[in-house]
Input
Amino acid sequence: MPGKNLSRDEAQQRASILGVDAYRVRLDVTSATDPAAATFRSTTTVAFRCTEPGASTFLDLLAAGVRAVTLNGRALDPATAFDGARVHLDGLAAENVLVVDADCAYSRTGEGLHRFTDPVDGETYLYTHYEPADARRVFATFEQPDLKAPFTFTVTAPAAWNVWSNAPHENVTEDGAARTWEFAPTRPISTYLTAVVAGPYHVARDHYSRTLADGTVLEIPLSAMCRRSLAPSFDADEILGVTKLGLDFFHEQFDYPYPFGKYDQAFVPEYNIGAMENPGCVTFREEFVFRSRVTDAAYEGRANVILHEMAHMWFGDLVTMRWWDDLWLKESFADFMGSYGLVGARTRYSGAWVTFANQRKAWAYRQDQFPTTHPITADIRDLEDAKLNFDGITYAKGASVLKQLVAYAGSEAFFEGARRYFKRHAFGNTELGDLLDILEETSGRDLKSWAAAWLQTAGVNALTPEVTVDAEGRITELAIHQDGEVLRPHRIAVGLYDRDADGALVRTRRIELDVTEARTVVAEATGLARPALVLLNDDDLTYCKIRFDAESLETLRAGLGDIEDDLARALAWSAVWNLTRDALMPARDYIALVLRFAGQEANIGVLQSLHSQAKSAVDLYADPAWRGEGGRLLADGALRELRAAAPGSDHQLAWARFLAQTANGSEHLGLVRGLLAGTARIDGLEVDQELRWALWLALAAAGQASDEELAEELATDNTASGRRQHTQCLAARPTPEAKAAAWSAVIDSDELPNALVEANIAGFALPGHRDLTSLYAAPYFKLLERIWADRTIEIAMRIVGGFFPQAQVSEATLAEADGWLAGHPDAAPALRRLVLERRDDLARALRAQACDRA
Ligand SMILES: [Zn+2]
Output
């Protein structure tokens, strides 16, 4: 499709001559409840100025058809003006009014206006999702973040529905079976931030008010929505409680009144990402409405996302990046604010920085070691680049570097900088330099070299301690080695740990210093007694991989779980995982650490990441000759800890889920079946619906669930979630036919919604089924370009990433991947990036297996 992939150059050119005064968008979605209706009517009126009268330009529009285009009262022929992706305009006046009357398609991929019908009650639900560039699937738009404008939406929908948008509605009129909702104009916002949510959603309402410094009272109506059939599980009080704490906190920190009037939060079905910060109308994945028991880590994760999106109301919505190069200006900040806010706003999730250190940073380390890594401020040539940049660098590394900036420049300079940034650039667009200028004002420091080292270069440094001692066991020198292509200034704390009287490993000394060179001596440590453990980057101030000296590593092998402090222990876990991934610690040694100490891990989020990492270690990093034994050890460990866990605890649930993931022998699978049948019980463990599906997946993957049994389970849980999990179970059956069916459902048709594409891939690609799926490696590489050309980018990304033969860890698969890369130098850069990353995972797994074998 010509022009579908808007380039930065085109966007800059357009912004250089255009200014947009207003959009008026009318949508008629009364057809949504008719499954046969594929499209809805979309009429856009745009008022815009042009500084070069006579010039040409274009709008972006991905529509099924265009009925009419009128520029300044002059009708244009849609057949020539519209090419399927753009509406071309010639002979612009200084002031223009354009009207585009189009038919746009309901989406099944989560991009644009997504339509979902609830299997429970047959009700239909709609919502929009646009970032980075899918507003053009719903109305004609200048699809780039720096052409901001006020938007006025009018939506005609079935009469029984409610409709929300960024602004509150001003008027609702009823006409037979339809109601028309007229919304107030928004403040100037970017196209990707506009939103419509429509359907018979269940809604909970509340209110927030705050007296501002000047004595005026800010009133913010609050609401939270979900599908009706989820209402019994909807804990809106908890959600709105976190929301109010967050509004208090960000008003205190940012000193800029919330600028978008009301604050709605919609939990929507088949959502592709965690959430989206549409001003005044945030959308979340509805899996955040917990219909079965989840651990507190899930509640913490949801609260983090609520605060992340709320921070965007300022970082991103009020002040927006000019182009996607500076996506970090909103995502790194929001990611940082998610954890910072959980602690600062006095929510009950006081361990948020532990989660950040252990889980969020793991994402950053992984991404930053791919050959495709990039500086935090990226070079984004076009929309496909932009789509792939919602990654571990832009979010987690960026947030880690902001945490380091707070340590380096001070939190007062950082937040005073934020306050000035909002006031100076409200409703505008910014680049890196705009932020640095302000931070230099408030910190009094030259941040150009800091930014060059941290924001404009890629890669992660490793910090390694070198300890020399004298005959009495006193430190003669503690030096820190910094490795990496670029050496950076790290403000870090060094923790010295020893056993206390009860045997716990506790910090006896904390030394804070700047590490700037390849080798830095910690002068303050000289003369101290050699501790049992030297922990670099204690308190997790900087972004780096930490290594250990030999004696400290021995201490960890003997007593990692005895480290008393949650954050220090999480850092140690993270470090030994990095050693495993870097082929410096055999996978079986890492698994032994997990088996030995995970049972005493108090932090539930850390425990759950240990589970997934241990599973990966067996599946990918262990010597294949030992893999079977490693898998049995994990399953035995899961069963042992499940029986030992406190009845009714989060830990018990986490171990039950881990047992479901690892079960392989007859003892484990027998218990799984017994739990499902009710013939076996674990005291305090409630086998609720989501746990049932996890147990069925274990049986299905082992070939021990019949189609009739799975159909029966679906009949008792014929919900959106039930259908997804049933699909995953079918794809997880260990037969050639089941794999062929899952593959074909995804590859041979584009009828499946995003959620079922994902479920099929997840079931198909179980690592334990590597023998069954090996014959799909060759067709995968043959299909790549066609998939990339034919599918929407969201679905193409899932297929390319999910069907890559990741479990086929062999030189032969590596050669196949290399062959494709060598043979397709001109494939779309975003497609090559995805393949390069999966290929790199494979090469890493081969190195780790060699280490484990040695
Ligand atoms: Zn975000």
User: Anything to note?
Assistant: The first helix runs from residue 8 to 17. The radius of gyration is 28 Å. The pocket of zinc ion is lined by residues 277, 308, 312, 331, 334 (CB under 6 Å). The mean pLDDT is 97.
